[in-house]
Design a protein that fits this description.
A three-stranded antiparallel beta sheet has the order 1-3-2. The longest helix has 13 residues. The chain has one domain. The radius of gyration is 20 Å and the shape is elongated. Helix content is 18%, strand content 25%. The protein is an alpha+beta fold.
Length: 71
């Protein structure tokens, strides 16, 4: 699309994309990584999903998921 006054094309609006980050490990390990992300100002601990046990895991592994919308 071209603006008739300036001759420049307008940028197309992009649809927002959702990106998920999943952490797998022990409950203590996943909590430590989430705290480190918080200290780096990446995400707040409350923004992560609930602790989910990893089915079939022989070690007490859990997962936590973080979802961020790209702008």
């Amino acid at each position: 699309m071209t603006d008739s006054n300036s001759g420049e094309s307008k940028p197309k609006k992009r649809k927002a994309e959702m990106v998920r980050i999943v952490i797998y490990g022990t409950q203590d390990g996943t909590e430590q990584i989430i705290r480190e992300f918080y200290l780096c100002r990446f995400s707040a601990p409350s923004e992560w999903g609930p602790i989910v046990p990893v089915s079939g895991s022989k070690t007490d592994e859990v997962s936590r998921t973080y979802t961020r919308r790209l702008r």
